[in-house]
Amino acid sequence: MNNPVTEKLHADKLIELALAEDISNEDVSTNAVMPCYKKGTVDLICKQDGVICGLNVFARTFALLDPNTQTELFKKDGEEVKRGEHIAKVTGDIRVLLSGERTALNYLQRMSGIATYTRRVVKLLEGCKTKLLDTRKTTPNMRIFEKYAVKVGGGVNHRYNLSDGILLKDNHIGAAGGVGAAIGAAREYAPFVRKVEVEVENLDMVREAVEAGADIIMLDNMSVEEMSAAIALIGGRAVTEISGNVTEETIPRIREIGADFVSSGALTHSAPILDLSLKNLHPVD
């Protein structure tokens, strides 16, 4: 969500798909109790302390159902929220408020949960050089939202998709016939402006990656002792990244190793939602 124009167009398509998933034909419950237009308002209430994220997506969900819907926001993405806090007010056709509620909250709760979890992990890295990265372990069709939430939480985005950068993992290396061969093939195929990152699992692979001229070396699922030895062996000749079972619980053990980055799939695949609710819906004149 860095380019507001192109990303809004992309996000709209995804939000519309989510709405279509929830309303395949009609909202039977809403149409039963509210067959005609009536203006109403509803409050967005926080039920749990955390970091709010996705407010514009929340508002856009209602606007796509009816552009006349108005959402008044009392917080901004990235701000901390407290249980019981009034975060926003949505006003419009009551049928829209009811039909869009679950989809809007699904986005907001998921994105806020990721931002909240990311913020906690980032705080565990304060005072050291290592920066926190996300991964491609995202929910299908949610990547644009989930990676944005990581940034809001204070993390850094890794490559967005397979077209975005070269990362040679174990199966690429196996297919090519070794670390050096994989790096050589990538250098020959890709433009010179592309950096080459390679995943390694032991010190022998680290040596081969350094000798082959890898730009970034990812230390995957290695012990703390092996990672420390690898950082020393690399000696600044490549950017270093730690990966593999990186969670809030394991970060304290690896923060002092001295890597440039640490990547964590848990930011997007394991963050719990932030509990939020739409309450006090009532008609207005």
Descriptive notes:
This protein has 285 residues and is α/β, with parallel strands linked by helices. It has 2 domains: 4-120 and 272-283, Aldehyde Oxidoreductase, domain 3, CATH 3.90.1170; 122-269, TIM Barrel. The protein contains 11 helices and 12 strands. The protein has a 6-stranded parallel beta sheet with strand order 6-11-10-9-8-7. The chain is elongated and about 75 Å long. It starts with a helix and ends with a strand.
Please tag this protein with its features.
single chain; 285 residues; Aldehyde Oxidoreductase, domain 3; TIM Barrel; 2 domains; six-stranded parallel beta sheet
Task: Compose a concise summary of this entry.
The chain is 44% helix and 20% strand.
Total tally of structural domains: 2
Fraction in beta strands = 15-25%
Computed over alpha carbons, the radius of gyration is: 23 Å
Instruction: Work out the oligomeric state of the chains in this entry.
Output: single chain
Question: Could you state the order of secondary-structure elements as H and E?
Answer: HHEEHEEEHEHEHHEHEHEHEHE
How would you state the average pLDDT, rounded? Answer: 95
**CATH fourth-tier homologous superfamily of the largest domain:** Aldolase class I
Topology:
Layout: H1 4-22, H2 28-33, E1 39-46, E2 50-51, H3 55-65, E3 70-73, E4 80-81, E5 86-93, H4 94-124, E6 131-133, H5 143-152, E7 166-168, H6 170-176, H7 179-189, E8 196-200, H8 203-212, E9 216-220, H9 224-234, E10 239-243, H10 251-254, E11 261-263, H11 266-269, E12 276-283
Parallel strand pairs: 6-11, 7-8, 8-9, 9-10, 10-11
Antiparallel strand pairs: 1-5, 1-12, 2-4, 3-5
Helix pairs in contact: 1-3, 3-4, 4-5, 6-7, 7-8, 8-9
